[in-house]
Design a protein that fits this description.
The chain is α+β, with helices and mostly antiparallel strands. The chain is built from four helices and 14 strands. It has three domains: 74 residues; 96 residues, Immunoglobulin-like (Sandwich), CATH 2.60.40; 54 residues, no CATH class.
């Protein structure tokens, strides 16, 4: 069954781009054939008309696809929100972190994704209901390394935790449930053991961590029953 699924996925994966190319470029065939026949005095007017009509439709489809891609891209590209330039009503969002941070939101009323910035965990946002896309908390350790913690709502979060309502009177609270909890999930299969590393908060939100632009993965130590370290190593991204 798994092999059949893979075969079907490959077939459809190859068939779709070929079909799309045929629709967008296939009009060249009747158009060229019609022009060739017309030059030889064998008619070809119908082929030219068919190819031209097909070409107009193909150009329209191409324009629509480009427009859709640009619109979709802008929808998922955060726009920095500037309260000083915003003419509408605003309110406050407060999180537990009292340092440099960012918050990205989807206004449920429509419009672009918003990126909010704060130096103390207090944000100004347009009033209304927003879906929480992600948040970033930043800090500098004693060695001077800059750290950023990027979190996103868990897929199993209830709706009330994935959204925030902003009004002009009462600050909205977002509970990030810090500090983070590191965990390792081990999958044992015969003589092979695979392990996965994850970071989460008390509410189940999943996180990634980066430090100063470096991509050093976290390491691990494996101990036996007596607590003796028998293996050390690093996790791999992906």
């Amino acid at each position: 069954m798994d092999a059949l699924v893979v075969i079907l996925a490959v077939v459809f994966g190859l068939a779709f781009p070929l079909a799309a190319a045929a629709v967008l470029l296939g009009w060249l065939v009747p158009l060229i054939m019609g022009i060739t026949r017309a030059r030889r005095g064998r008619g070809g007017g119908r082929l030219i008309a068919a190819g031209g009509a097909w070409g107009l439709v193909a150009v329209g489809i191409a324009i629509w696809l480009v427009y859709s891609l640009v619109t979709l891209s802008s929808r998922f590209t955060p726009e920095t929100f500037d309260p000083q330039e915003y003419a509408g009503e605003t309110g406050k969002i407060v999180i537990a972190w009292q340092g440099p941070c960012e918050l990205t939101l989807y206004p449920e009323s429509g419009g672009e994704m918003l990126r909010l910035s704060s130096e103390n965990g207090q944000f100004t946002a347009p009033t209304g209901r927003h879906s929480i896309a992600s948040w970033t908390l930043r800090a500098t350790d004693q060695s001077g390394s800059e750290w950023s913690v990027i979190g996103r709502p868990g897929y199993d979060w209830p709706e009330q935790k994935r959204t925030v309502g902003v009004n002009s009177t009462t600050p909205a609270q977002i509970d990030l449930q810090l500090p983070l909890r590191a965990s390792i999930n081990a999958d044992v299969g015969g003589d092979d053991v695979s392990m996965g590393f994850s970071l989460s908060d008390g509410a189940g939100g999943q996180y990634t961590i980066s430090s100063g632009g470096r991509d050093d993965p976290p390491g691990f130590e494996m101990m036996d029953g007596s607590g003796r370290v028998v293996l050390t190593g690093d996790f791999e991204y992906g």
